[in-house]
Design goal:
Blueprint (H helix, E strand, L loop, with lengths): L3 E7 L7 H13 L4 E7 L3 H5 L3 E3 L5 H6 L20 H10 L2 E8 L1 H16 L5 E6 L15 H21 L6 E6 L6 H5 L12 E3 L7 H15 L2 E6 L14 E3 L5 E3 L7 H13 L3 E5 L13 H19 L5 E7 L9 E7 H5 L19 H11 L16
Parallel strand pairs: 1-2, 1-4, 4-5, 5-12, 6-8, 6-11, 7-8
Antiparallel strand pairs: 2-3, 9-10, 12-13
Length: about 400
């Protein structure tokens, strides 16, 4: 392939480390003699359609280095769903800018976009190599051990629940329960991560994962048991928990342009609010609920060093694959160690088409038999990704003698 230009973009929701992946692509591509310019699409594929590309090679070295630790999506994101009528205009832009290497950082829908664009270009006489860079805090991307962005978001959830549990312990005479709602749609990877920082007071006491059907009676019994044992109850729920009939615990749901469910959107009640009412009605208790929404996607202050490093490495690996002509794939990460050995990761690939049509819920081996907790196997999986947690103390609180 003759010298050509690189086009890179970001799509879907951000993560704390997605810009580190962008930095990996840019830095690696700029060093290659096979690459002319490195261009970024402003606001995802909309930047291509609207002829708004930016020259990333003209950015200062300080800015390119700073991307490695900057949250958000520096290029701007998009959730535009590609239609057949978009492709001729996209191809025109690819030819105009001599784009020969195409990279997108994103999830399932993003991998579908890369796949469709590269296929269309090649079928219409424009040689294009496309490689996907994995990204999602939900950790539901098929074919990879975990996704860049998940460790940092999972640590955000775990730290939030850990600290809220300390507060709930101390405020139990005021508020008898606290509910933390996590994002993640129909996957429980994020709420499950809260168990990795479980403290001596047992919080979180009850996990509600989307992979398990919600049963109100069993849930309330679990809440009662935890309250009797600890004096308060810490509950973590996934936003997408559903009842046996398939209805979400949240009162309503809408869908985005890709058909992805947005739980509790457009004024609907969230799962946490619905659970709060159930508990208050059943026991007459006062309690709190916390809904994080997009905060775990951009909290760089709780970012995991390993996560930033792996995100950058995935971007770099994507360019290496493309320059070797290995396109039509997404970069994957696989563990190279046994459970008893220190954590090590190695790269692999998976065809883009496979990623686009599959999801990755938590496997049964990671969920406890009663469905309200995780197993030791999950903790072994997730703990190397999250780093160490602070150890908070409790007063002995021995009653003073007169």
């Amino acid at each position: 392939m003759p010298v050509g230009n690189v086009l890179v973009g970001q799509s879907g929701g951000p993560t704390s480390v997605i810009n580190s992946s962008l930095a990996g692509v840019v830095e690696t591509a700029l060093k290659s003699k096979a690459v002319g310019r490195v261009l970024g699409m402003r606001f995802g594929i909309e930047g291509v359609l609207n002829d708004y590309l930016v020259d990333l090679g003209s950015e200062s070295a300080a800015v390119r280095t700073g991307l490695k630790h900057t949250p958000g999506s520096a290029l701007g994101s998009s959730r535009l769903k590609l239609k057949d009528e978009h492709f001729p205009a996209i191809l025109k832009q690819l030819k105009k800018y001599n784009i020969r290497y195409f990279f997108l950082c994103g999830g399932n829908d993003t991998m579908d976009t890369i796949n469709r664009v590269t296929q269309y270009a090649n079928e219409n006489g424009h040689e294009l190599t496309g490689v996907g860079v994995p990204k999602t805090v939900d950790n539901d991307l098929f074919g990879t051990d975990h996704t860049p962005g998940y460790p940092s978001a999972a640590r955000y959830v775990a730290m939030s629940v850990l600290q809220a549990g300390v507060l709930a312990r101390d405020m139990q005479k005021v508020d008898q329960f606290v509910i933390f709602q996590s994002i993640g749609r129909s996957a429980g990877w994020l709420p499950a991560a809260s168990a990795a920082a479980r403290s001596a007071n047992g919080a979180p006491h009850v996990l509600l994962l989307p992979e398990r059907t919600f049963d109100k009676d069993r849930f309330l019994q679990k809440v009662a048991d935890a309250h009797k044992k600890y004096g308060f109850v810490s509950i973590v729920c996934g936003e997408g928990i559903k009842q046996a009939d398939g209805m979400p615990v949240s009162a309503s749901q809408t869908k985005d342009k890709f058909g992805n469910v947005e739980f509790g959107a457009m004024g609907g009640t969230s799962a946490a609010v619905a659970l709060h009412k159930m508990i208050s009605d059943a026991f007459g208790w006062r309690g709190e609920f916390q809904i994080s929404e997009s905060l775990p996607m951009c909290a760089a202050d709780r970012g995991v060093k390993l996560d930033f490093q792996e995100a950058f490495a995935c971007g770099r690996q994507a360019v290496k694959l493309a320059l070797k002509g290995h396109g039509g794939v997404m970069v994957t990460m696989q563990r190279a160690n046994k459970p008893s050995e220190p954590y090590r990761m190695e790269f692999g690939t998976i065809p883009l088409g496979e990623v686009a049509v599959h999801e990755r819920p938590m496997p049964d081996k990671y969920i406890s038999d009663d469905g309200f907790d995780v197993t030791k196997a999950f903790l072994n999986y997730v703990q190397p990704l999250l780093g160490e947690f602070p150890q908070y103390v409790s007063l002995a609180a021995k009653k003073a003698k007169a």
